[in-house]
């Protein structure tokens, strides 16, 4: 995926001048070795110029990691650490940063070999707060070399999302369709997050599409589509137009991303799109998402923002689905009950017309859009990619601005069950523990729209930390609470 950043994290060790500097030097070396033994050494850079004990050292280390191309920082307390210099380093580094601290190694060396970084982390966190500096501190931030290496590795997807957001432009086309007020998109919070947005008319897109008619690249894109679809190519007559549209979007991205490195698209798909373009864009949306350029349906700007975050965290394809319909009781009784550890109210179906990448469908067919075809000629509704979503772990989540510009988020881990949906569109039978309560006391109570982003795999821990780093209020980072932990709005009787 070329549309997400590659993180290179600089490790800078710090030392309080009344402690042996050798503690920080040797512990840093051990940390770097532990990381290299277990993970990709290209992810990290060991700052060799100095151990930071003073403000002058801080400047030297900062210049070194910038020169090395680091876009994330780990301040490593090899001992107690200099609370001023280490927090100034975090202040002046432009990128996500974390703090970790060295544990004591052995009971046989607690005189000259004791570093007191356990204590130093308290002072570091206090000084970060004094200076209003954001930094990621792991749940238990003190560890030996191997444990700190794991902490750094867990920080990388968080850092990847934060770096990506700071260089993201969302390109949208058209206003939201009628009756889509739920997917409201006040842009103030986008700017607060460091995201740029370019809002365009559908007419601008249609003009660009017309200019791509007869583009010499269309046959090669059609061939690629035919290869991807295989036996699922049920509407071959529409591929040339879909290829023309895909090229239109890709060229628009290159011409309009400006100084930003990464792009996501919030696209229009109805009500006038089909009749004017002559197809629906779902399959093209799925292909671009598969290339690492998330595309949301129905001009859902915060939906595609969420998709981009999920792409950065997971380094994998994501999708955007309606939290759509309940699972019929007979389906639950036949295919889920006594086979999986879920109540009926834990289950639901996630669906969208056909925007999910083919790699995330059990089998796929490119067909017409059944809902739209109820009111329009079938020939202008062609272009959806249908199939049951692959079973496995998922994370359902969303970052959203409310209509009055308050930022909030939710994260819920679960799975797609290996149960045939017997329905249409890109769809799956989802199961999330305590989904019924989550649906009522988070999704309904806090006025979330029906669209949710889906990352494949369990990525809740990293997503939760991304939202914390982005200053989403803790009371507004919601999750599917266990039955033993009632929601504030839940009737205790």
Shape: globular
Radius of gyration: 25 Å
> Helix/strand-derived class?
alpha/beta
Oligomer, anyone? single chain
Helical content class: 25-40%
- What's the tally of helices? 16
By DSSP, the count of extended strands is 18
Q: What fraction of residues sit in β-strands?
A: 15-25%
Going across the biggest sheet, name each strand in turn: 10-11-16-15-14-17
List the uncertain runs.
Answer: none
Overall average pLDDT: 94
The profile of the biggest β sheet is:
6 strands, antiparallel, barrel
Q: What distance lies between the first and last C-alpha atoms, to the nearest angstrom? A: 50 Å
Number of domains: 2
What does this entry look like structurally?
- With 493 residues, the protein is an alpha/beta fold.
- The chain is built from 16 helices and 18 strands.
- The protein folds into two domains: 9-165, Rossmann fold (3-Layer(aba) Sandwich), CATH 3.40.50.10940; 167-479, no CATH class.
- The chain has helices spanning 21-38, 55-67, 83-92, 117-130, 145-166, 188-192, 202-211, 218-229, 239-256, 273-277, 282-290, 301-314, 329-335, 370-373, 435-444, 460-469; strands spanning 9-14, 44-46, 72-77, 97-102, 142-143, 168-173, 196-200, 262-266, 295-296, 318-325, 347-352, 365-368, 382-388, 392-401, 407-416, 426-431, 451-456, 477-479.
- A six-stranded antiparallel β-barrel has the order 10-11-16-15-14-17, surrounded by four helices.
- Strand 14 (392-401) and strand 15 form a beta hairpin.
- Helix 8 (218-229) packs across helix 9 (239-256).
- The two termini are 50 Å apart.
- 50% of the residues are buried.
